[in-house]
């Protein structure tokens, strides 16, 4: 029965009809004075319960409304205060010494570097220069010593002998404590460059200071060749002062 009424009136109409019927009956009963207070209260309670039940059972949700516009972006909050600078960390341990030393640096104190040298015949059979270039420069230019095969240095003496009452200069071989090494194991005292001779033939040693030029990056030594097959070669060592 209720189904047929629901089909004719629709959900909304059906619910309204039921509510109206209950109201009419209740009102009539009130008017007739047939209901006491307790019955009135019970009828009111049941009427509300009945209306709520049928409203939920036959209610139909309406279509979803369109999405509302996007709200305005809120104001940007103030930037917080900069935090205090943290304490400086402890200094790390010193790392091991690098090898070779850094580019642009100089040879550390008392450290030694070594190399090789050689000279040969020139077309005019005259002065020939020997050069030694340092891979790592020194802070100051070293003194230069050429050690002969006999382990001695040829040093120019302005008065090695007298002739007719005048001094005559010349070379003399003397020990050189600044060069304690040898060809196979070149060594030099701090501040010295030592050129050790392994082989020499028809070579006139520099002797005079003007034949030797020393720099922080190397040295050049002039030697006089006295034969068409003159030659010499050896090793060198330099130690930072």
How would you describe the overall organization of this protein?
There is one protein chain. The protein is built from two helices and ten strands. With 241 residues, it is α+β, with helices and mostly antiparallel strands. The protein has a four-stranded mixed sheet with strand order 1-10-6-3, with no helix packed on it. The longest helix is centred in the N-terminal third of the chain and has 31 residues, at 2-32. The N and C termini lie far apart (123 Å).
Gist of the model:
This protein has helices at residues 2-32, 37-58, and strands spanning 112-119, 127-133, 143-147, 153-163, 166-174, 192-201, 203-204, 212-214, 218-225, 231-239. It has 241 residues and is an alpha+beta fold. The strands form three sheets. A four-stranded mixed β-sheet has the order 1-10-6-3, with no helix packed on it. Strands 2, 7, 8 and 9 form a four-stranded antiparallel β-sheet that branches.
